[in-house]
Amino acid sequence: MKRHMAATAALLLVSLVGCATDEPVATPSDGASAPPAGAGTGEQSKFFVQADYDNELALLDAAPTGPADKPWEQVLNPKMVDTAKFKKDGPHKICFSNAALNNPWRQVGFKTMQAEVEAQGDRISEFVHVDAEGKDQKQIADINDLLGKSCDALIVSPNTTATLTPAVTAACDAGLPVIVFDRGVDTDCPVTFINPIGGYGFGHVGAEFVSQRMKPGGKVLALRILPGVDVLETRWSAAKVAFDKAQVDVVGVEFTDGDPAKTKKIVNDYIQRHGTIDGVWMDAGAVAVAAVEAFQDAGQPVPPINGEDQLDFLKMWKDEGLTAIAPTYPTYQWRTPIIAALRILDGQQVSDPWKLPQPTITQENLDSYLDPNMPPLHYAMCGCTDLPGYPQRWK
Amino acid sequence: MQLVQRRPLPPQLSRVRAGGLLPLLAILAVLLVLVAVRQPDFLAPASLMSFLGRSAPIILLAAGQYFVIVSGEFDLSVGSLVTAQVVVAARLIDSDPSRTWPVVLVLLAGGVLVGLVNGLITTRLRVPSFITTLGMFLILVGAVYLWSDGAPKGGLSEEFRRFGRRAFEDVPVLGRIPYALVVLLVLATLAVLLMRSDFGRILVAVGDNARTAALSGARVARTRTIAFMLSGLAAAVAAILIGGYSGVSFQAGAGLEFGAITAVVLGGVALGGGRGSVAGAMLGALTLELLFTLMNFYGVSGALRPTVQGAIILFAVAVSTRRSTSR
């Protein structure tokens, strides 16, 4: 009897192993655009769209319109749309359906948005925030509920693109101005869609820097969070193009799950397997510090690396004198929807799409972003230093 | 009944049985040879020491899991306990070095407390430990998310991190000895001594046949509860080492419970209890880690790890079931 139970328990265990460790499995890609012969990075991601890639790389060099000291109000290649039909007397009730608050980026962003609401306090009578906790079904219900609460404007940060599209369309049909930001939806019914340049720009900036700064023909390790997410796939596919063009030797493309321990082990494994690694590219900055530590713990110099604008990485960059760069996906974009909503309710023209600039932190401007008094997981590109409650609100 | 009477001292017997440590040592030796062929540098003192230091947490967790499994229960909560402890440590320390030692004590006490709760629910309320600890797993995951609003706050001090990251430098011959390895050696010795004491014998007897053990005067519920507390304590030490190694993250302990259980099974310990040694469990963890390292050297995708773990659990249980029926 006991043996029988043990066997049953073992079966249960095995089935649980599969679900709990949640290892990413490489997605098979169709190879829509075949890479040049001899490329070491494999087939191109099925998320890669050449036209979008070309567009984003062009935007990296475009000059924005708007106040230079307020990038969250700037627009790249503006295409103004008329909003006179939404003109309304204030103060307004603004409602926000949020995909989730489940990572430091969204936490910093949401605090920035709350501070922007406070700064505009005389024009906003009420700000309603509903957190969908990363669930599509909850967000669909949330948007439906908000439509019955007489909001003057609705801001949506969709959890996933395709699933949330019908809910957003329904909101547009209800007649109130809808503003979508961060991730998009498959409809142009919202008044405007606000986001920074995007993943291709991010991936390209990091990969170009790493391949230029390392020794020619050197070995690059690419670290990705997980496969199959569009914003991350675009980052990698742009990096892949850059690496193939520079003909560097990409010795590995690994998934870290955003786990520092796993990252350290992977980097350590590669150092042992290849002796040295000459460059590290990352699709997100969360585990950049762990990657740097792996080189330090192995007693090796840290090769050229890219991170993001999180302060733990910026601090390490400065303290250790790293050869580094930090492309960003700025959290200041959380200010823009509030500003856009108020402009729309004033009947002013806004740009659709509203493409925000996406600054890069380099050795030259590092000091202006590095505030040692802020917590390690804070994002420097929050554009929040002039907002009420800074810095305490973000600590 | 007769069967049990013929085996009054299971630990000693299991050590001389064919199913003891010999097969495992043979596997370990084969893996070492394969590693040496593929990557001779790995066996150099420096990288070997760093490998042992990195493996210390999972070896400790395997020892903790052993106490529970040999007494006839399971502990699925250790992975989420490690995550919870790392996140709690970061928030409590908040990068302030002076809070390091108090927080270390809080973590150790917290680990023991979680083990106590697991043990009491399992033994007093008679909830199967599989369910108890699965429930604890979910409770801890949810509590950590709730308490931290979905993203870790604060930071670990360098003083806290050194246990998992730093080493005694400039040691003759070996180069450097990670603190984690020293912690492991001390605790492993204590674990072996504990299993040789009266408590260890009672623990195995309880797992072998709880009713017989109770009739011969063993306090079954208390013994099993202590086993859960030891597992919680091991998880706390592992959390300190893992937090030190890699810093604060929500994934710190993900999947560790299965790693530990696989290691214990690989170490020749019977699921269901009553057979196997703590040294075997710890060697099992070392073997598992070496196997993963070897897979890495041969360029096998890390995504295959859960598959390998699952195969080992099935294979080991199948072998032990065959062995016990053919006896």
> What is the strand content of chain A?
15-25%
Low-confidence runs of chain B: 1-18
**Spatial gap, N to C terminus of chain A:** 56 Å
Sheet bearing the most strands of chain A, described?
6 strands, parallel
> What is the distance, rounded to the nearest whole angstrom, between the alpha carbons of the first and last residues of chain B?
15 Å
DSSP helix count of chain B? 15
Summed over residues and divided by their number, the pLDDT of chain A gives a mean of: 87
| Count of extended strands of chain A | 14
Summarize the structure.
Chain A has 395 residues and is of the alpha/beta class. Chain A contains twelve helices and 14 strands. In chain A, helix 2 packs across helix 6.
Describe this structure in words.
The complex is a heterodimer of chains A (395) and B (327). Chain A is of the alpha/beta class. Chain A folds into two domains: 73-197 and 330-358, 3-Layer(aba) Sandwich (Rossmann fold), CATH 3.40.50; 199-328 and 359-385, 3-Layer(aba) Sandwich (Rossmann fold), CATH 3.40.50. Helices cover 39% and strands 15% of the residues of chain A. Chain A is built from twelve helices and 14 strands. In chain A, the strands form four sheets. Chain A has a six-stranded parallel sheet with strand order 3-2-4-5-6-13, with helices on both faces. In chain A, strands 8-7-9 form a three-stranded parallel sheet, with helices on both faces. In chain A, strands 10-11-14 form a three-stranded mixed sheet, with helices on one face. In chain A, β4 (153-157), α5 and β5 (178-181) form a beta-alpha-beta unit. Chain A is globular, with a radius of gyration of 23 Å. The model of chain A is unreliable at 16-39 (pLDDT under 50). Chain B is mainly α. Chain B has a domain at 45-257 and 270-275. Chain B has helices at 2-5, 10-16, 22-38, 45-70, 78-93, 100-124, 129-148, 158-165, 179-196, 198-208, 210-215, 220-246, 256-266, 278-297, 305-325, and strands at 167-171, 175-178. Chain B has a two-stranded antiparallel ribbon with strand order 1-2. The longest helix of chain B has 27 residues, at 220-246. Chain B starts with a helix and ends with a helix. Classes of the chains: A alpha/beta (395), B mainly alpha (327). At the A-B interface, α1, α3, α8 and α9 of A face α4, α12, α13, α14 and α15 of B. Chain B: It comes from Verrucosispora sioxanthis. Chain B: It is found in: Cell membrane. Chain B: The chain crosses the membrane at residues 21-39, 51-69, 99-120, 127-147, 177-195, 226-246, 252-271, 278-297, 303-321. Chain B: It is a multi-pass membrane protein. Chain B: Pfam families: BPD_transp_2.
